[in-house]
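Why does residue order matter? Because the sequence determines the fold. Keep that principle in mind as you read this record.
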Amino acid sequence: MESKKISVGLDIGTTKIVAMIGRKNEYGKLEILGIGRSKSLGVHRGVVNNITQTIQSIQQAVQDAETESGETIQEVIVGIAGQHIRSLQHSDYITRANSELVIDEDDIDLLVNQVHKLVMLPGEEIIHVLPQDYKVDGQAEIKEPIGMYGGRLEANFHVVVGQVSSIRNIGRCVKSAGLELEGITLEPLASANAVLSQEEKEAGVALIDIGGGTTDLAIFRDGIIRHTAVIPFGGNVITEDIKEGCSIIEKQAELLKIKFGSAWPGENKDNEIVSIPGLRGREPKEITLKNLSKIIHARVVEIVEQVYVEIKNYGHEEQKKKLIAGIVLTGGGSQLKHLKQLVEYITGMDTRVGYPNEHLAGDSDDEVTSPLYATAVGLVMDGLRRQEKKCLEKVEEATHQFGEYDDENNEQGQPKKERKSFLDKLTERVKDFLDNAE
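Structure:
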């Protein structure tokens, strides 16, 4: 029997770059074999702004993961996020040539490809086209039109758009680090797969992933992604504010935030004081925890309010679109004390902190199940899913070649064309571009 397939997720974040190696165990759960993380120096608000530094950080993370797992890494699944990601709603239709035949996957492909021809702003490219619901001959709210009769097929789409150059830069970094790009995924989607349960996605839930440079939002309802947004603020601006407000260096500000920070100023007594060593023989600084949490509170409120605006844009206030499961917080920033209470207070929605243990094997390290690694875990899962799909397609092809084939099910008697998701096409385009650009 062949060795268990491994998959590698590469989360290129603003504060850290994580390479994570995983595979499925015999119970179909995800087993993490190794993690490498390095400080991310060349990334600002989720966008690469220094290629050389990013390549070095990727190599460092990959090396650590290889050492820990004893595996060699060739291909990676990369997440894209960053402030250039935006999403829009769009509806489109096709008129079918022959309404005597039932609607099949080709019709849906045609419709999806039509959406890809939308004219975007210069330098923008469509990353995801996610069908929401369909209409067949004016009959609305159809979830799955395949197999139905109809002449006019229309659909509402959630379209995610990003900057071509940013995506290519990430591809470039991965390639120059000596790795192959196996796939590209939207980071909020990866995090969502790692921390949300299927019930939550059905009931309606908003996933808020608070990273260092950006805060990502993904909204699900009836099991389908309904809205995505990237807000260009994250944990780093909180650290910046502490640094400015207390006149201390960044390292100290970050430690203060992690060790003593709280999002709720009422918690701290006035007399709780932290003393911070001065620089090079200067007097130590004394900072009250109350002031510290006031600084943090002000900034967190701003971030949460922006996210809440996006949740309202999606239409959470309409009865039909209500998010019953509320909010799930994940990412490094979700570890801030009393954040859950603050988010509930601002939005009035049920809130929990999401750990990426939904699909992990039971004996996983505590480290892996930290919200810090939600995106990386999601990317590894995505890689394994792709591999399974490829295996299935190979089996299907083999079956066709040996002629074990049932003509009655397939009117044309031709092997089914494989459907490439747009992300696969995008990955191929980025690969081609890189190959030709060298």
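The chain is about 35% helix and 25% strand.
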